[in-house]
Amino acid sequence: MNKSTIRAFGLAIFVVGALLALASRFDVNIGLPAKSSSNPQYVEELQNKLNKADQEIAALKKQVKQVHTTEETSTTDSSEQPAKETSADGTTMTLQIYSGITPYIVAQKLEDGGIIPNSVEMELLLANARYARSLQIGAYEVNSSMSLEEIAKLITGKKQ
Residue 97: what are its φ and ψ, rounded to 5°? Predict the structure, then answer.
């Protein structure tokens, strides 16, 4: 862009701003939304629609909860869900690290698997300069008795 184009654009912005300021000062209707009158019938109609929407949301939440509990009780072998076991040492799972995975996703998988209580701490640890961009592709056996530092060293290939 050359200087005259930029100046013309700036001038146009200034003129529009000045016109809007004048219109609001002299209360000129230029097509902007105005205050609507409070029509009791309209308000009641909107309230009814809101109540119906709330009922639909509650019904959908109930359906989702039923589907979710059904999925948990069924024995589906999904490759997306990590393998989990509970032993005397605590919860154990296989953590799958693939190309392009982020520390956020790794931490979320560990929290969802019951290995760590707080995904934010793990995400911050993996974002640390010591481990940043060091995640190694592979499958790792992790358990809840391991510390965050031990898990980070395992999945980044750093020396113990």
Answer: -110, 125
Residue 95 bridge partners (DSSP) = 140
Claim: this prediction has a pTM higher than 0.85: no
19 part of a folded domain: no
Closest CA to 132 of 95, 113, 158: 158
Domain of residue 133: give its range. Answer: 84-156
Q: Name the CA dihedral angle for 128, 130, 131, 136, rounded to a multiple of 10 degrees.
A: 170
What would the 3-class secondary structure string for 48-69 be?
HHHHHHHHHHHHHHHHHHHHHH
Question: Is 79 inside a domain boundary?
Answer: no
The span from the CA of 54 to the CA of 95, in Å, is: 39
pLDDT tens column, 75-134 = 444 444 455 555 556 788 999 998 888 889 999 999 998 999 988 998 888 888 888 788
Whether 42 maps to a domain, the answer reads no
Whether 17 is covered by a domain: the verdict is no
Q: What CATH code is carried by the domain that includes residue 122?
A: 3.30.1490.480
